[in-house]
Structures are given as C-alpha cells and as structure tokens.
Design a protein that fits this description.
two-stranded antiparallel ribbon; five-stranded antiparallel sheet; single chain
C-alpha cells in the first residue's frame, strides 16, 4: 500500500472456505493484498455495520485527539499514543494509518481488510476565522465498499470529500 509516496504495510489472515490440503492463497488487487479463491479472512460474528462503526468511531476519536493535541502543541502527530488514545493501528476489519502534511493538516485512513466494507478518510486541518487560526475536521466515507480510502480536495480554506464519497455528520 502506498500513501503520499510512502510504502506502508498491512497484514491479512486467510482461511480455507472448505477442508483442503492446499493452504489458502492471497492475491494482489488494486494495490492491496486480499484472500484468493476458496479462501477468506476469518469472520467473527460482527455485521458489516458493526465493523464500519468501528472505523467511524476510531476516526472521529483520532480527529478529536488531533485537535486537542494541536491546541497544546501547535502541531499534529502521526502517533496515536501521543494524544492519549489506545486505538490499535490494525484490527480484524481495518488498517489505520496517520500521515501529517506540512504541519498544516493530518490525514487518517481506515483501509478495510474485507471486500464488503467501506473505507474512510479523516482529516484535521488549520483554517482561519475572523483572523484567528483554528482546527476543523471531516471524515469522508466511500459511497460503496472500497479498498481505497476516499480522496479529499481543498476548496478555498476547507477540505471536502470528492466524488464517490460523502462526509459523515
């Protein structure tokens, strides 16, 4: 997986769909490793909605943590533990990644490990209001299941979700 020219990693566990002497296979699709034919990731009894709720809650918490961290330090961080959250960077359903950009904004992505899940991008950015600097945040959700987190675009001093994704309220 590549993010802003930086290679990152995410592991996957695959299990056979039926008894077999052949081990489960993996395949590269759209720049990401997925389970191949006759195999799938282990699935605890969590619904798609529950898995996606995890990502939404994690990104909302990370965005709030980044905003509080910025008030204290006037910078952003790519280390979750620096603002007191104990959120894993990888769960059974998602890989989470944080990248700071030019000390002006920070992007957190939630990349799904399962093909039926939506992906998410959270952004905290600095803007001005009445001559004062302040932080704002947004979380974009892909409109359909996707292995690629939503892209964002700058419109003036605001960050917007691009076509194919929608902001969460």
């Amino acid at each position: 997986m590549e993010f802003n020219g930086t290679l990152t990693s995410c592991s996957i566990i695959c299990e056979s769909d039926r008894p077999s002497q052949v081990p489960p296979s993996t395949v590269w699709v759209e720049g990401r490793l997925i389970c191949g034919l006759n195999s799938s990731p282990p699935r605890p009894n969590l619904s798609i909605e529950q898995r996606q709720l995890e990502a939404k809650q994690y990104l909302a918490s990370i965005n709030k943590g980044q905003q509080a961290y910025h008030v204290e330090t006037e910078t952003f961080t790519d280390k979750i533990e620096e603002f007191g959250l104990f959120i894993p960077t990888e769960t059974e359903s998602y890989c989470y990644e944080i990248k700071t950009v030019e000390d002006k904004w920070v992007v957190t992505t939630a990349t799904p490990k399962l093909r039926d899940l939506k992906s998410y991008t959270g952004v905290v950015f600095i803007t001005t209001s009445q001559g004062y600097f302040m932080t704002k945040s947004i979380v974009c959700e892909s409109d359909r299941p996707s292995s690629i987190p939503p892209l964002i675009e700058w419109v003036g001093e605001e960050v917007k979700c691009v076509f194919g994704s929608s902001p969460l309220s």
